[in-house]
Amino acid sequence: MVMVINTLDGINTQQYPTVFRVNRCISHNMLVPVMSIKIHLDDPGILSPGATISGTVICHFEHPEVVRGITCVFKGREYTHWDVQRSRNSVKFHGKNDFVNQVRQFAHAGTLPARTYKYQFVFNLPDRQLPSSFLHDCAAIQYFIKAKVDRPLGFDYKDSVSLHVASPVDLNDFVDQISMRPLRNQLEEFPSCCFFTSEPLLLDFTINKDAFVVGETIFVKINVNNTSSLHVSEVKLSLIQVGAPCNCSSGYGMCSSTYKLPPIGAPTISRSGSANVSTMWSSCRNLEVPECQHSG
C-alpha cells in the first residue's frame, strides 16, 4: 500500500480525490495499534467429570499496554427464566448460579511491553456428579472459559470458548420412575367431509423403551392400516422436548422444542379396489436422541 501511495505524489488529488482519500485511509489504518487475545484448547472434545482442561491464552500487543490485570476463568453456570401471566401483566422470573468457578491470574496491574504473551492454564472439572451441558428456551447449563485483559483506560479485551460436558447417566437410578419396557400407541382417525365419514385410518406406533439418554438410539416401528378413502404418501415423525419447572402447580410456564425429523417416504398407502380390503404398510427406523439445542 505504501508503494501505491507514493505513486500518487504526482497526481492531481482534485482530479482523483476518492483514490487519494482511500489509500491515505488504508495507510493510516496500518499505523493503528492492534491488540488481540485468543484462547486455544489442547483438546476441545467432550469432557466428563474429573477431566483436565488445558490450553493457552495468547495476548498480542503492538504497543505498551497499561492493564489492571490479565485473568482466565472457568465457570459452570446454571440459568433459568420463565414468564408467569398474572392478570394483564406478565411477571418475569430468572435465576443464575455458578456451581464451578476457578480463576487464574496471569498478570497484575502495570504496563506490559509490546510483544506476544503466552499463558498456559490448567483447570480440573470437579470429580463429582455434574449436570451435562444443556441449552433450552427457559433453562441452560453452560461450561465456558473466558480470558480478559482488564484495561483501566479503555474497553477490555475478551475471548471465550464453550465447553461440552457429558455427565454419565445411569437409568437404573430411576427405576421407580421409568419402566424400561416397550411403549405402544395406537391412533385411529375417521376422515370426514360434510356429512360423509370414511372408514378409519389406523396407525400403530411402537418404541423399544420409555427412557433414553443423549446419543442413544430409539428403535421405532410403524404400522399403517388404511381402510379409508384417503391416499397416504409419507409418514412424519417429530421428537418433542418439553421442559417444566419442578413445581408446576405454582403456575410456571412450560417450554417445548420440536425436532422435526426427515419424513419417511412410503409407497402410496391407499385402499384397494375391493370394498373389504385395506392396505397395510410397515417400517422400522432408528432415531438418535439429539443434543438439546436452543430453539429461539
List keywords for this structure.
296 residues; mainly beta; Immunoglobulin-like; five-stranded antiparallel sheet; four-stranded antiparallel sheet; 2 helices; 6% helix; Arrestin-like_C
How would you describe what is shown here?
It comes from Diabrotica virgifera virgifera (western corn rootworm). This is Arrestin domain-containing protein 3-like. One of its GO terms (biological process) is protein transport. The chain has 296 residues and is mainly beta. The chain has two domains: 33-163, Sandwich (Immunoglobulin-like); 172-288, Immunoglobulin-like (Sandwich). It has two helices and 20 strands. Strands 4, 5, 8, 9 and 10 form a five-stranded antiparallel β-sheet that branches. It is elongated and about 85 Å long. The two termini are 45 Å apart. The model is unreliable at 1-33, 248-252 and 272-278 (pLDDT under 50).
Largest sheet: 5 strands, antiparallel
| Binned strand content | over 45%
Q: What's the order of the H and E elements? A: HHEEEEEEEEEEEEEEEEEEEE
Just give the CATH class of the largest domain: Mainly Beta
Number of domains: 2
The average pLDDT value, as a whole number, equals 76
Q: In DSSP terms, counting alpha (H) and pi (I) runs of 4 or more, how many helices?
A: 2
Span between termini = 45 Å
CATH topology of the largest domain: Immunoglobulin-like
Radius of gyration: 30 Å
Going by CATH, the architecture of the largest domain would be Sandwich
Structural class: mainly beta
Unreliable stretches (pLDDT < 50, length at least 5) are 1-33, 248-252, 272-278
Count the strands?
Answer: 20
Helix content class: under 10%
Shape: elongated
Keywords: Sensory transduction
InterPro entries: Arrestin-like_C (IPR014752), Arrestin-like_N (IPR011021), Arrestin_C-like (IPR011022), Arrestin_domain-protein (IPR050357), Ig_E-set (IPR014756)
Pfam families: Arrestin_C (PF02752), Arrestin_N (PF00339)
Family: Belongs to the arrestin family.
